[in-house]
Amino acid sequence: MQGLWEVKEKKEKKERIIKGRDLVDVVFSWSVRDVLNSKLYKGKVDKIPNTFQSSKEYFKSFVNPIIEETHAALLSSMETLRRAPAFKVWEIKPAKDFKPPKNLYYEVTLQTVSDNTTKGDGKLLEFNDLVAVTDNKPYRIDDLRCSNEPYLLALVCGVNEDNPHLITILASKPIVFEEGHMETRKKGKGVKKSLSLFCVYLTNMMTNIRIWIALHPDPEGGNLKLISKVLQSNNEVGGESCVSCQENSENIMPNHIEKRLRSFKLNTSQEEAILRCLEAKNCRHSNNIKLIWGPPGTGKTKTTSVLLLNLFKMRCRTLTCAPTNIAVLEVASRVVKLVSESLRLGGYGLGDIVLFGNKERMKIDDREDLFDVFLDYRVDELYDCFLALTGWRANVQRMISLLTDPKEVYRQSFIENDKRRPSFKKFVEKRFSKLRTDLRSQFSTLCLHLPTASLSFQVAEKMNATNDLLRAMKVSDVVRVSRKEDARKQDCVEMLGSICESIELPDFIGKFGLQRLCLENAYLMFCTASSSAKLHMSCPIQLLVIDEAAQLKECESAIPLQLPGLRHAVLIGDEKQLPAMIQSKIASEADLGRSLFERLVLLGHKKQLLNMQYRMHPSISIFPNREFYGMKILDAPSVRVRSYEKQFLPGKMYGPYSFINVPYGREQFGQGFSSKNIVEVSLVDEILSKLYSVSRKSGRSISVGVISPYKAQVFAIQEKIGKKYDTSEKFTVSVRSVDGFQGGEEDIIIVSTVRSNGKGAIGFLSNQQRTNVALTRARFCLWILGNESTLTNNKSVWSRLVDDAKARHCFHDAYDDESLAQCIKRSATALDDLAKLQSNKLLSFENSIWKVLLTNEFLKSLETIIDSEINKRVMSVLEKISNGKFQQDSKSENLFRQEDIDDGLSLIWTVDIIKKQNHYLQVLKIWHVLPSSDVSCAEKCLEKHYKRYTKLKIERCRYICSQGNVVVPMRWPVKSCLKNDMISDVSRSFALLSVLDEAEVQSSKTSLMNLFKIQEFLKRWKMKNVWTIRRKALLQRS
């Protein structure tokens, strides 16, 4: 059972102690009302100061903000409760260490993950997941009830590695088992009762628990050397070289290191940054923290990887961290490539590099280049080599025995007179072939994956030579005995024996032992800052490197900064780009998202600037360079050459840098109160279509990135373009938010600014860090879509950007491009049509006989299309079916109907029932306009909606009443909707039929004639009914 707990002997019983239990208890103490109160900690979270008097004050300043951030994460999960993965509980029982009232541990068996009803949308519960235990799968907050408790939380504190559906939880309250928690199921011929409980995933507390532990260090055994170094303003941090080192000439780098650096063709600022870090690493007089400032495109990752390669060559035990898995994988990949190129004997030496973390979150299966250094993969490979019976040592002994005395091996392998015994030659051939194959594989695995501290270079050479010897040997060499063959065999036996004696490792090592072996002997380790908590019990680490340090919360950097033995750190980042993501507004205002890198810069600590950018065309780099970096960044010669200027589309508007004014955009609210601008969506789609056409005709490879600060706009653009470019190899499109694009780059970047209003309100678009990231992702072309009047009606960076574009003659109106002008016109017309539909969701077309009910889903699907021509076709189809001109098949069991709009789009609609005054009325309910290929998926989703309808209501939806070629709507009085009321009573239903409202009837001659016919029919039907009732009464009396 896996878990982050300690086990202590106390009164001859094992007591489980959850690390970070104080934080867990705070979470458990919140009621539902507390969780839903976004202002629960308002006024209780103080702003984190810039300097601190002691480490105690330092740690304490982060405690309340991290509690508030945990609260915000839980509140956010409540808002998406309907989509939360839910796992059916198969069995639950108190664990051995269950001890009320606090230690409420339970062992839980979840239904196997192959069961679709409990799969949790593909997610498995993990260690430190926070779950709600409920009676039913919840769809709203009220559904969180468990037995008599309105709200019961539990923390997953153990997951069985072999059976992930077996977990241990710590509950906030006792889980009471009642009869109501049992459900009856048929199993075979009998009936079996099972639990009716669910574990509903809310959030994962792993990172916040690790931060909490770092904020409460062991007062006796913690390493606070670097923490104490950053409490106050201190020029030594990030400052010049150590005075003692300078006096003793200890900071002078050997010539071979400077020569090695020059081989990587680094610029002066990159070389200087690396040398200063290597000097700090050698300092024994003080603890150092170096800052490397890497603006966009300045080769920050290259500088980091070359620094790490040199530390690897110097045998310096170094941990490299980053805030995200993506950043960790990027730098690890670069370093592995550099190290692999410098290795002398195949992969020998890669065993000194370890990458570890969550396999699924890292998506390691997609990173074949990192398989050889990923810890889990390495342990699995080595585990087979260290099995007692089939491991490398056992196979070496078998090979020695076979080469020394094959006849004796043959004799011992079979019982005498065994009929199944093969011939001696065949036996030797088979045994030798298998052992040779196994040893070749196992020797290669040991050379590749064992750290060099456990396997010397000389032993690796022997393994390589032995493999060559065995490969050259034939079966006849093993069977026959001559001087030549005997000498070769003898050499091989001696080398095999020498290998066994040289490796001082046990014959058998379990997976945990192998993990420890790899981590304790590695020289370069890579993981997220949070995952570095796993190294707190390992061997000392000499140097810490934090990549993307400006994106890491300072309280999170406290996890690796306290690692045992750590004396020096290098922080690499850019505080001018995005900081860490914070969910809580209260915690954000308290500066929880501020990084240690940023705080040290605020205090005036020196940072080593990488001052040459290699990414952007000078026309792109000039504005961010002046606005954010004070013109300190130089353009590399490679981006200043004429060949770096690319013209993908004709016209000045599509040059290296353009601001394209979109004056008639429509700013709207989208998902989650985020903003979107459908006109800009249409323009992005049009530009992408043009670029794709160029790429397809010319065979030119083009990568395009579309960036917007607003998630609703990102979603709208993704919906608009769909999957039309997914199959193209030479044309790639990536649509992401600004936050999702940090660290990325593309040939062309299109920025959609969204905001379009008369107030000049631009919201968080004014954030300078976010703007900086958006403007520095393009290599060759940057095209910005925006509303000039909105962006200039304030004093933000965007006003200066528009003025700069005008001054440089890079300002263009979208109307200057004919295709864009037509696109704006179509979008504006479509938006007007959509506004009319949204204002009146229950439509009546002129002379129509059906009411048309428009769903929100339908209106949203129109928003993603926004094309006036398609809108006209949709309205034409709606008018046709509202006149009753649709299929009259009453026997069909399918509720859903489909009308083709064009070759690629279909309209999905149903007949539904609405209550109007004292009647239920059939109406046409319009659900979607979507690609024809998506119709089946949409129908499956709609089936869930109609499952909530009663049988009677479904039958009335299906009922068809026709008059000639026209289908007319039915109407039933509310009183008729009783359980025993059957829709098959056609005469009664038809008698109550009213095609239109009274006011509408008077305006239509056809409707009046229909009404007169119905009234005559009513009189005859009523008289007939009266005589029938009287006749029955007379018969009963008689």
From TrEMBL:
Pfam annotation, one family: DUF6469
DUF6469 domain mapped to chain residues: 128-216
Domain spans labelled DNA2/NAM7 helicase-like C-terminal: 592-788
Every DNA2/NAM7 helicase helicase domain range: 265-585
Entries under SUPFAM superfamilies matching the protein: P-loop containing nucleoside triphosphate hydrolases (SSF52540)
Gene3D superfamilies per UniProt: P-loop containing nucleotide triphosphate hydrolases
CDD domains linked to this entry: SF1_C_Upf1 (cd18808)
Alphabetized InterPro entries for the sequence: DNA2/NAM7-like, DNA2/NAM7-like_C, DNA2/NAM7_AAA_11, DUF6469, P-loop_NTPase, SF1_C_Upf1
Protein name: P-loop containing nucleoside triphosphate hydrolases superfamily protein
Lineage, opening ranks: Eukaryota, Viridiplantae, Streptophyta, Embryophyta, Tracheophyta
